[in-house]
Amino acid sequence: MNAITPASAPAHADSDAHLDMLAALSARLLDSALARGADQAEVSCSEDTGLNVNVRMGEVETVESTRDRGIAVTVYFNGRKGSASTADLRDDSLAATVEQACAIARYTEHDPAAGLADAELMATDLREFDSWHPWEISADQAIDLALACEQAGRDVDPRLENSDGASVGSGSSLSVYANSHGFVGRERSTQHSLGCALIAGRGEDMQRDGWYSIALAAEGLESPAAIGRKAAERAISRLAPRQIPTGEYPVLFSAEIARSLVGHLLGAVSGGALYRRASFLLDSVGTQLFPDWFAIKEQPFLPRGFRSSSFDAEGVATRESALVAGGILQRYVLGSYSARRLGLQTTANAGGVHNLQVTANAGDQRSMLAGMGRGLLVTELMGQGVNNITGDYSRGAAGFWIEDGQIQYPVDGITIAGNLKSMFAAIEAVGSDVDARSHIRTGSILVGKMTVAGES
């Protein structure tokens, strides 16, 4: 089986009935919490199912089928918070969960920032975003896809003598969030993936690389053959790496790596880091962090977006808004608790951001390499050398050396270093080669100058 096809009939045809059940359960738990004296309460219920298979060197390694349920109850007694959870739907277990949450709250300290988000901020326009596409795939069919993917990659070149394997994953999620403001929000989504990692060369000269595809609908996945071939090409391209002299060079982060830079920005402007005074971007709203053409927009209403939603994890209505515009940081990323700690209002980001789009000002990666002329293309990062308090950045890297706008040879065993504030200001271009496999959508990002530690 080499083609990816959607189900002829949707799985979980009773998803609406399951959501009705979870909503009714949430209402019961809220009533129970309020009857025990809580002045506010919230409930999150979820049901998740999944199938994951892994193969390696033409043999099946693992087949895993999952079915999980989670019920979390949080209560507030005049600023004192208690939470408890269960996966058991029996009446006595549910009653015990509410009682435990209430008991915990009675022993916690009063926190003036604790509590539900303000009632007037609750979402009222609740929509779906074409995110429900169950895939009726059996374990045998998934195994066939994974084997075909791996074999297509290994057939590319005889130097691909080994493999880290191929995998297929398919999952669905149903969830309900409800609170004592009367808000009830339902969501359902699916996510499917196919990936392969191959090893080229022998002994100390071995190099590993891979590729994967991820989508909300199975027909959105790349074909097994295409994924296998791309994994093979990436692994072969890394053979016989060289070192480069230590120095300062332009660094182009490939699109799949570039989103980590946006991730570091999010970490620094998130409420938890800010109220703890553990961010290098304290008091930065309204300041110029990036070049004046640079922009990042949050788009929570994208059809088939990985993080599309009408409401955040507290029921607050989401909205399209700029995070960065004209290179200036427009706002922080806040839920209601962190907002209160900072004397601000929630930005509807409890639980995270909802689809970020980084505006491009350049062409694809090839044209960016031509414009860069000489420097480093980074395709892999290693280590966690980022200090969120100072912004200092130092990570192991691998990629390719560029001369005259062309890839010359692979490089590894190097370290790239700088400070995130300086790196943000030194961004010269964002490519149009957007990696669509994430809720952070960006093309390759060119930083004009970074320290690269290679040969002495």
TrEMBL record:
Residues 133-239 form the Metalloprotease TldD/E central domain. Residues 41-105 form the Metalloprotease TldD/E N-terminal domain. GO terms for cellular component: cytosol. Pfam families: PmbA_TldD_1st, PmbA_TldD_2nd, PmbA_TldD_3rd. InterPro entries: Metalloprtase-TldD/E_C, Metalloprtase-TldD/E_cen_dom, Metalloprtase-TldD/E_N, PmbA, TldD/PmbA_N, TldD/PmbA_sf. PANTHER family: METALLOPROTEASE PMBA (PTHR43421:SF1). This is Peptidase PmbA.
